[in-house]
Design goal:
Number of strands of chain B: 0
Low-confidence stretches of chain B: 309-318
Distance between the termini of chain B: 12 Å
Largest sheet of chain A: 2 strands, antiparallel
Radius of gyration of chain A: 19 Å
Order of helices and strands of chain A: HHHHEEHHHHHHH
Helix content of chain B: over 70%
Order of helices and strands of chain B: HHHHHHHHHHHHHH
Number of helices of chain B: 14
Strand order of the largest sheet of chain A: 1-2
Largest sheet of chain B: none
CATH class of chain A: Mainly Alpha
CATH superfamily of one domain in chain B: ABC transporter involved in vitamin B12 uptake, BtuC
Strand content of chain B: under 5%
Structural class of chain B: mainly alpha
Mean pLDDT of chain A: 88
Shape of chain B: globular
Oligomer: heterodimer
Shape of chain A: globular
CATH class of one domain in chain B: Mainly Alpha
Structural class of chain A: mainly alpha
Distance between the termini of chain A: 45 Å
Number of strands of chain A: 2
């Protein structure tokens, strides 16, 4: 196979940007997962299902309202719907399970994933859906002679905003500081007279909201189908692990590694592009088994 | 540790009756049920092989389906692409699965619990991705169909008896391993790795051997699947199946030897029965599992052995 001849600098730059916009989606989803892992210690396998639900809700709301406004309303509605749903799940089920060991929680959330997957099939049917980006984000512009989709540029702008917002929330606000303290020492926080149970509910809801947002943002870029939960959750877990459990910047770093190796893989060897990120993850884990950055565990 | 007989006379009778029923099944049941029971035994063997490391070794093996798929693919590829006699495929499939397990084990074994599991998943996904995309060799996402089996076991009855014999032999071997000195040491590592290390046990070596054994029997289950189904597909290696097998172990009870077998039987028959009435059988399975984890975390068999005290579990932890 002739591998290197079609790789020009411009093409490499273009794929790098595509990889970075993929990084945005991966970061948003995995930062939510990381938050839940870091504070609640729940390996939430159903996180990918919430991402899928976010994408389907975006599709439904956007097509129901239609046009430019439809998409923006959907973009706001999907995370809220997912967040409220997850709040109900947390208050109804998870708050009774915090003391269980990790493997049990993992299997429990896996069962929830099975249920939610069928629930989506029940509501939206098993056909795939596709949603086009709002008119102002359609088409592409030229970047050093290579076309680059406008929507990807939009994603590239959203990513840093979300990272900044999340950082401010966890580091600058009172509830964020309480949540980080609860991650380190639950009993101590409770002893200060703070209702830790509701702090956990807030964090869980916030984390799941990120999954919903990720699903909403990804909706115009790919087919919305059954099974998108299986792919994303595995990617998100690996990203969180290579970044360092519970570390938000780790999630960003991990997402970048995953997104960029994937997009470079498409350029270098399209048939085996999906293998590249797993190779990268494996190499990282062999040398830094506890992740690149400091874990909160 | 107290001395006990390998099998109590009571459980020996139960096993004998069960075996007789299984041996007579093809004379009584229809084709579909023969197929279903064969599938239960294959899945049960797979779950039991996982439980060797999960229940008896306390290791979070999150990618066990990979060895199932590796055994199946190795057997199918040797037969279809390599032109070997299918018997060679059945023989070499498990060996290749064990070799893969050894390779992954060497990389993962120094990690513990969740980190071990995640590196396993990562390596497993790597294998899955290669199989999924290598169209010219593995058939990609279509898999391979119509893999020939030897004439002796070409009929459904023949395949059934082959599966029955191999499953019983493998279960017996695994039972002997669990109750061997190696198995005892292995379980003591699960209960307290530090103490085992302190009395001079090479913990990682034992764990590595355990992984290879589990991978080997997982590979056997994979080759049996090829006998029954005549096809292989990449979903056999996917991580969702790996977790499903863990669920089977949990469902049956992972501190008992036959628990995973029971769990696999429950899942396979549930899929068959509920699948008749609704397309949404995974939802039913999910709800049952959620209820189970909520109320019966020690598993079905574990629950009943604890409540009724009928027989001591083979590899009881404290």
């Amino acid at each position: 196979m002739d591998l290197a001849s079609h790789i020009t600098l411009a093409a490499l730059g273009q794929q790098l940007l595509v990889g970075l916009s993929r990084t945005t989606i991966l970061f948003i989803v995995s930062s939510g997962l990381s938050l839940i892992l870091g504070v609640l210690r729940i390996p939430n396998v159903s996180h990918g299902s919430l991402y899928m639900i976010g994408a389907f809700v975006t599709y439904s709301v956007a097509t129901l309202i239609g046009g430019q406004t439809g998409f923006w309303v959907a973009l706001a509605a999907a995370p809220v719907v997912v967040g409220l749903f997850s709040l109900a799940v947390e208050r109804g089920i998870f708050c009774h399970l915090y003391e269980r060991e990790h493997l049990m929680l993992l299997l429990f959330t896996f069962s929830l994933m099975l249920v939610l997957g069928d629930l989506v099939k029940l509501i939206w049917g098993s056909d795939y859906r596709s949603l086009s980006a709002p008119p102002m984000l359609q088409g592409s512009f030229s970047l050093a002679g290579m076309p680059f989709p406008r929507y990807n540029l939009f994603l590239l702008m959203i990513g840093p905003l979300v990272a900044l917002g999340l950082w401010a929330l966890t580091n600058k606000t009172k509830i964020g500081k309480i949540a980080r303290a609860a991650a380190v020492d639950r009993e101590m926080v409770a002893a200060m007279g703070i209702n830790v149970s509701w702090v956990f509910a807030f964090v869980f809801c916030l984390g799941c909201l990120m999954a919903g947002l990720g699903g909403a943002l990804v909706a115009p870029t790919q087919n919305i189908t059954q099974g998108m939960d299986h792919t994303i959750i595995m990617e998100a877990f690996l990203i969180v692990i290579i970044g360092g459990l519970g570390n938000m910047w780790g999630a960003l770093l991990g997402a970048a590694i995953f997104g960029i190796t994937d997009s470079i893989g498409i350029l270098v060897w399209p048939q085996f592009a999906i293998v590249f990120p797993y190779v990268a993850v494996t190499i990282v884990l062999i040398f830094r088994p506890k992740g690149l950055l400091k874990s909160t565990w | 540790m107290q001395q006990q007989k390998l099998l109590s006379s009571r459980s020996l009778i139960v096993v004998a009756v069960l075996l007789a029923a299984l041996a007579l099944l093809p004379t009584m049941a229809s084709r579909y049920y023969i197929y279903l029971v064969a599938l239960m035994m294959v899945t049960g063997l797979l779950a039991t092989s996982l439980n060797m490391v999960l229940g008896f070794g306390g290791m979070y093996q999150f990618n066990h389906a990979v060895f199932y798929g590796a055994g199946a693919y190795a057997a199918a590829l040797l037969t279809v692409r390599g032109g070997f006699n299918p018997w060679w495929g059945y023989l070499l499939g498990p060996v290749m699965a064990a070799a893969l397990s050894l390779l992954m084990g060497i990389i993962c074994v120094r990690l513990s619990k969740l980190y071990f599991g995640m590196l396993q998943i990562s390596l497993g996904s790597l294998v899955w991705a290669v199989v999924f995309r290598w169209y010219s060799f593995t058939g990609g996402d279509d898999g391979m169909h119509g893999v020939p089996s030897p004439r002796l076991i070409g009929s459904i009855d023949g395949a059934y008896y082959f599966v029955l014999i191999v499953t019983v032999v493998c279960l017996a071997l695994m039972y002997l391993i669990v109750n061997s000195p190696f198995g005892r040491v292995f379980q003591s590592i699960r209960d307290n790795p530090e103490r085992a290390e302190a009395i001079g046990v090479n913990v990682h070596l034992h764990q590595l051997i355990g992984l290879v054994i589990a991978g080997f029997f997982g590979g056997v289950a994979g080759t049996l699947f090829v006998t029954v189904e005549g096809s292989v597909f990449p979903d056999m290696l996917f991580w969702t199946l790996s977790l499903e097998i863990i669920i089977m172990c949990l469902l049956g009870g992972w501190f008992t030897f036959l628990g995973p077998m029971l769990g696999a039987g429950i899942v396979v028959s549930l899929r068959a029965v509920v699948g008749i009435y609704t397309d949404y059988w995974t939802m039913v399975l999910g709800i049952i599992l959620m209820l189970l984890i909520f109320f019966l975390p020690e598993g079905v068999l574990g629950f009943f052995t604890a409540r009724l005290g009928c027989g001591r579990a083979a590899g009881e932890g404290d």
